[in-house]
Design a protein that fits this description.
With 365 residues, the protein is α/β, with parallel strands linked by helices. The chain folds into two domains: 161 residues, Type I PLP-dependent aspartate aminotransferase-like (Major domain) (Aspartate Aminotransferase, domain 2); 132 residues, Alpha-Beta Complex (Aspartate Aminotransferase, domain 1). It is 39% helix and 14% strand. It is built from 13 helices and twelve strands. The strands form three sheets. Strands 1-9-8-5-4-2-3 form a seven-stranded mixed sheet, with helices on both faces. The chain is globular. The structure holds pyridoxal-5'-phosphate (PLP). Pyridoxal-5'-phosphate binds next to helix 2 and helix 3.
Length: 365
């Protein structure tokens, strides 16, 4: 068995190049960037944030959220995130000072953060809300899509859909202006990335991937993570292929499958002794990026899952150097324990069933 961590590019998904899907209302082409971090950098600039300003970020995050703020020259203050991924708006409010211009709220794994409360406090204190929907493509809170509450919002749709690249900036205030650069990735780079995204389908079909071996090596895994997450922000627009695939995506199918796999795996995870799910349900409207578990001795269980053919992720094994782990012990706790199971639309029901049985088999070892 091999289960890829992200939805692989299949012929069915490729047909989205030529027909509009039901995800079409999302975003504007002139605000389509090559990555979520490029969209975030453009959003910070649209808000006029620069040197001397301060931005509040959650202490549980990855380097690619920090770098855009550093790039515009603003200072960063971190706010706490609990072991259950909860954020306390009062803790955010207590950090607001005269230089604070914006709060970034991450909707972790597609599950809405306390966005209405943080929106209200931003309005009260006259600062901007930046919604980070990198994990939350197609998720809603009540009848509103995530990404409509912030002054600005960003998405990283290549995480949820088989796109070669992509980052969306959404501006929810008429006075804000931004555009993506003219320059996009080269055709060769787009084709290479499309080929890479289709590899998962092949690996899944043959039931084996060389990646699992590499990921079991700590040094290589960390290097790969640093390559993907750290480094400067490349300011390019998204490829034309990614934009067409995004417009052609089948939202209802993606949400339906992700929710179904999530529910099935959650059921299996509830009975585990070696790990516990972070969220004990998926409320209506949530389109889960994956199923986060917390496990003591996480690295051991990751290794067992990789050995069984499940490409699990950790999100984020290494927190950015600016996060003081002694000040934010809960973020450090999560970073040491989290494992994210795939729930994507590229898994068949049979594959989700095999994953559920693998989890239970590990329980008996
Ligand atoms: C919460 C969050 N925000 C933003 C980003 C940046 O997105 P991208 O990788 O498309 O630049 C990521 C990516 O890892 C993320 O996890």
């Amino acid at each position: 068995m091999y289960l890829p961590p992200d939805p692989p590019l299949t012929l069915g998904a490729l047909s989205g190049l030529t027909r509009p899907g039901d995800g079409a209302e999302l975003g504007r082409e002139d605000l389509f960037f090559g990555s979520g971090r490029a969209a975030l950098l453009a959003g910070l600039k649209a808000l006029g944030i620069g040197p001397g300003d301060e931005v509040l970020l959650p202490a549980y995050l990855c380097e690619s959220v920090v770098t855009p703020v550093e790039t515009v020259g603003a200072d960063i203050q971190f706010y706490p995130v609990s072991r259950g991924l909860d954020v306390d708006p009062a803790a955010i409010e207590a950090l607001i000072g005269p230089a604070t211009r914006a709060v970034v709220l991450i909707h972790y794994f597609g599950f809405p953060g306390p966005v209405q409360e943080v929106r209200a406090l931003c309005d009260r204190r006259g600062i901007a809300l930046i919604e980070d929907c990198a994990h939350a493509l197609y998720s809603r809170l009540g009848d509103r899509s995530l990404g409509t509450f912030g002054d600005v919002a960003i998405f990283s749709p290549w995480k949820s859909l088989p796109l070669p690249d992509g980052g969306l900036l959404v501006l929810n205030r008429p006075d804000l202006k931004a555009t993506a650069p003219i320059e996009g990735p080269s055709t060769r780079r787009t084709l290479t990335r499309l080929a890479y995204r289709s590899l998962g389908a092949f690996e899944q079909a043959v039931g084996w991937s060389p990646r699992l071996r590499l990921l079991r090596r700590n040094d290589l895994r960390r290097q790969m993570h640093i390559r993907v997450s750290a480094g400067s922000v490349e300011m390019v627009r998204g490829s034309a292929a990614a934009w067409r695939l995004l417009r052609g995506a089948r939202r209802a199918l993606v949400v339906g499958r992700r929710r179904r796999h999530y529910a099935r795996l959650l059921d299996a995870c509830r009975k585990l002794t070696w790990a516990q799910p972070l969220f004990d349900s998926s409320p209506d409207g949530v389109c889960p990026l994956g199923l986060p578990l917390v496990a003591e001795n996480r690295d051991h269980w990751r290794d067992r899952l990789l050995a069984a053919g499940v490409n699990v992720r950790t999100y984020w094994e290494d927190l950015p150097p600016g996060v003081d782990l002694a000040r934010f012990p809960d973020a450090a706790w999560l970073s040491d324990r989290i494992l994210v199971l795939p729930t994507h639309q590229g898994l068949t029901n049979g594959a989700a069933g095999r994953l559920a049985r693998t989890l239970q088999r590990l329980d008996r070892i």
